[in-house]
Amino acid sequence: MLQMNAFSRQNHIVYTTAGDFCRIFAEDMNALYLLGLLLTAEPANAESCFVSGLADCVDGQPVFKEWGRSWARRAIVKNAIRLMGPKPGYRGWPSMRSARHLAGDEKWDWESGLYLNSLLQLDVFDRFVFVMVVLEKYSEHECSLLLGCSRRDVILARNRAFGHMGDKVGPQSDEFLQPVEAA
Predict the structure, then answer these.
(1) Which of 106, 119, 157, 161 falls between 20 and 30 A from 86, CA-CA?
(2) How many whole angstroms separate alpha carbon 26 and alpha carbon 89?
(3) Which DSSP state fits 112?
(4) Which tens digit of pLDDT belongs to each residue from 54-105?
């Protein structure tokens, strides 16, 4: 550790501190909570992911300062995976109560025209893949590693999610919902 500190001072490498992570979680609270909510579909689980994500970042290994925000988002994703255990082939039951409570019939006004209600009604694994690959821009390979499944499982889940979401997305986003062939 002493060598790393001497190296970082010599080359001006700056790491994200516990205080930096606290600031990031305070500034990005709504977005980080929303990410947890989209993954878990339950407000209590989203809160748990947020709190655990903050603790993981503060107590974890140092990361480059410019990676702080993406590391915080990744901590939320990893905690949601740990909490929900999404697996391919397991359909689970989407949280209909939460979906109705959170979205009602109102459109969630994103550029893509997605409906929050429709997203929250996806099967657990498909919802995780959709959020990670489409919204968070994880590669299919990285998504498969984090979820402990094959890349093919990720592609199939993404295509199922596109099929479910297809009638809920406006015509301006047609290219957004093109299925990808599974390898």
Answers:
(1) 106
(2) 37
(3) T
(4) 999 999 988 999 999 999 999 999 999 999 999 997 665 555 444 444 544 4
Query: Do residues 88 and 114 lie in contact, with contact meaning Cβ atoms separated by under 8 Å?
Result: no
pTM, to two decimals:
0.77
Reported as a single tens digit per residue, the pLDDT across 109-120 is 444 445 677 888
Q: Is the pLDDT of residue 137 over 50?
A: yes
Tokens standing for residue 86: 């999404």
For 181, the 3-state DSSP assignment is coil
- Give me the helix-helix angle, 68-84 and 140-147, nearest 10°: 50
Angle between helices 18-27 and 29-40 (to 10 degrees): 80
Terminal-residue alpha carbon distance, the chain: 43
Q: Which domains does the chain have, with CATH numbers?
A: 10-85 (1.10.1740), 95-175 (1.10.10.10)
As beta bridge partners, residue 15 has 64
Looking up tokens 């500034």 gives: 27
pLDDT of residue 87: 95
90 torsion bin: left (phi>0), alpha (psi -120 to 50), beta (else): beta
Q: Are 104 and 76 in contact (CB under 8 A)?
A: no
Alpha-carbon distance 169 to 112, whole Å? Answer: 7
